[in-house]
Amino acid sequence: MALLQRLLVALLRVLVAGEHAAGDAMPSPASGGGGAAVNVEARYARVFCFGNSLTDTGNNPLLPATAGGPSTSPPYGMTFFHRPTGRSSDGRLLIDFIVKALRAPQPTPYLAGKTAADLLAGTNFAVGGATALEPAVLARMGIVSAVPVSLSNETRWFQDALQLLASSINARRRIAETSLFFFGEIGVNDYFLALASNHTVEQAAATLVPDIVGVIRSAVIDAIVAGARTVVVTGMIPLGCEPQLLALFPAGSAADYDPDTGCDARFNKLAEVHNRELTRMLRQLRRAFPAAAVHYADFYRPVTAIIASPAKYGFGDTPLAACCGGGGNPYNFDFAAFCTLRASTLCADPSKYVSWDGIHYTEAVNKFVARSMLRRALIPMPKPNPSLSMPLSSSREHTGQETSRELATL
């Protein structure tokens, strides 16, 4: 079994049982929809995370440029933590489910790390509002970013943290070798900012996609050179299903909207171009670095599946509306009534909604996406070099009843 499959099965053990009606979603082509009988857990000493607000678990409130933002005020965090934690959701993010399933320590937000021990247990370098491209590069395209953090900044933070954690090259490599590197979705803010700066979808696809994918490529290579053996790279979300874009950039023709989802096909096309180029690049990296396991994690298809058939997966009948927001439009989104502002309102049950605040997802969706990443991978994953495989816990067979009993205790 390929290493990603082991990782995915481990996650599946935590997330499959006891969830809402998304239980039958996204059956594995290999299993024909049946559950896995053998569960093998990949063990990682820690997780290093990179990305933006879809992955940030607490850096945003600590960065001067973003401190005091919406994620620091109620009702953010209401579902699971019952308080704001700096996460841009009503509860947990995708990375929270991954870390829990791997039984790895919760990564410390980089800006909250006080000691080397904090960072050694795992570090989250993601920052809400971060872009893939550096602000100076965006500025040359006429695009202004208010958050002075890019993926390059985050990878430099990782190098600084690694230097702090170990003095020798061998020790630093061992840290990287025993870690999972998770690159959450990155690039969505570049596209948001470009569209807000009057760039067309065609311009964004032609000028931004190659540069964004190139920056992700460099970041993944940096991780592999540092010693990473397992890297997971998340694809782009369906941009055309974002309440923010639907409310701010209405299409000129009804033909621009997908009849099955109501999403804007123009923006989804941009996301599809991004994902196509990203997966092509990752294939190239697998050939260039055969000793490393480089995996693609699909964010696009699970979300569009919910939006096309929300009732099938336990969601409500307004999958394109924000749970927390306002504005009087079908998408419940207006910056003047953004979540936490006086003019905003809150839905009765966030678990029935796809979008939390018009930009970010609810905990229910993050959970669903984590499960779908377990059951299927867009690209078949090669087996890593056995001599470089991560240490695994002892495996044993589980029946469905045994798995259900284990999950019921979580």
Features:
alpha/beta; Rossmann fold; 13 helices; 37% helix; globular; disordered N terminus; GDSL; signal; SGNH_hydro_sf
Which fold name corresponds to the CATH topology? Rossmann fold
Spatial shape:
globular
- Biggest sheet: strands side by side, in what order? 3-4-2-5-6-7
Question: How many helices?
Answer: 13
Determine the fraction of residues in helical runs and give it as a percent range: 25-40%
Mean pLDDT: 84
For this structure, what is the CATH class? Alpha Beta
* Poorly predicted runs: 1-41, 377-410
The N- and C-terminal alpha carbons lie at a distance of 26 Å
InterPro entries: GDSL, SGNH_hydro_sf, SGNH_plant_lipase-like
Signal peptide: 1-18
Pfam family, one: Lipase_GDSL
Region (Disordered): 385-410
What does this structure look like?
This is Esterase. Residues 1-18 form the signal peptide. This protein has helices at residues 3-15, 94-102, 116-120, 135-140, 151-165, 169-177, 188-196, 201-226, 243-248, 265-288, 300-308, 363-375, 400-408; strands spanning 38-39, 46-50, 108-109, 123-124, 179-183, 230-234, 293-297, 324-325, 345-346, 396-397. With 410 residues, it is α/β, with parallel strands linked by helices. The chain has one domain: SGNH hydrolase (Rossmann fold), CATH 3.40.50.1110. The strands form 3 sheets. It has a 6-stranded parallel sheet. A two-stranded antiparallel sheet has the order 1-10. Helix 1 (3-15) packs across helix 12 (363-375) and helix 7 (188-196) packs antiparallel against helix 8 (201-226). The protein is globular, with a radius of gyration of 20 Å. Mean pLDDT is 84; it is low at 1-41 and 377-410.
